[in-house]
């Protein structure tokens, strides 16, 4: 007979025991304590507006490598995009309008969005506490694009990005990568690859490798996003 799993005070099982889709649990809450514990263990919430809170730890896991040539590491920056970034078309800010960025990321998504009012409130609280951050790109006074995520030790878990002006999200992501490299972050998690993120340099690593890198990253104490 198999031994019972030890009692856990979180609604997910250890990521190593996830099913084939990476599902690890259901229920719980989105309090700062729960969310930070989840990120530290390689787990994140992802669910629809009519669903209970669902927790995931996919295998493989997608990252963008921070090591590599300056200033963008493993981020793929085309010659055209590099010229645009050098031109000064976009003005970059940090944490200037987190609420606008997370709401914009949830707009106009086919098939609905996981960025529900409950999720927005939870991540705005993480932002208030200094764990969730946004990078914005602007053209004049117009918000052109942005990206947001969670920083924990040397981990930055990028949650979503958006654009309203062509290359606005790419400019924000490039600025994010530069900042992470400057601040000595070691792991940029993008959860799962899509054709778009693959073109930007995202690639998959085994979950086991991700968890090993994560354990090192979250222990770093001399790393700060702001």
TrEMBL record:
<keyword id="KW-0012">Acyltransferase</keyword>
<dbReference type="GO" id="GO:0008914">
    <property type="term" value="F:leucyl-tRNA--protein transferase activity"/>
</dbReference>
<dbReference type="InterPro" id="IPR004616">
    <property type="entry name" value="Leu/Phe-tRNA_Trfase"/>
</dbReference>
<dbReference type="Pfam" id="PF03588">
    <property type="entry name" value="Leu_Phe_trans"/>
</dbReference>
<keyword id="KW-0808">Transferase</keyword>
<dbReference type="GO" id="GO:0030163">
    <property type="term" value="P:protein catabolic process"/>
</dbReference>
<dbReference type="InterPro" id="IPR042221">
    <property type="entry name" value="Leu/Phe-tRNA_Trfase_N"/>
</dbReference>
<keyword id="KW-0963">Cytoplasm</keyword>
<comment type="function">
    <text>Functions in the N-end rule pathway of protein degradation where it conjugates Leu, Phe and, less efficiently, Met from aminoacyl-tRNAs to the N-termini of proteins containing an N-terminal arginine or lysine.</text>
</comment>
<dbReference type="InterPro" id="IPR016181">
    <property type="entry name" value="Acyl_CoA_acyltransferase"/>
</dbReference>
<dbReference type="GO" id="GO:0005737">
    <property type="term" value="C:cytoplasm"/>
</dbReference>
<dbReference type="InterPro" id="IPR042203">
    <property type="entry name" value="Leu/Phe-tRNA_Trfase_C"/>
</dbReference>
<comment type="similarity">
    <text>Belongs to the L/F-transferase family.</text>
</comment>
<protein>
    <recommendedName>
        <fullName>Leucyl/phenylalanyl-tRNA--protein transferase</fullName>
        <ecNumber>2.3.2.6</ecNumber>
    </recommendedName>
</protein>
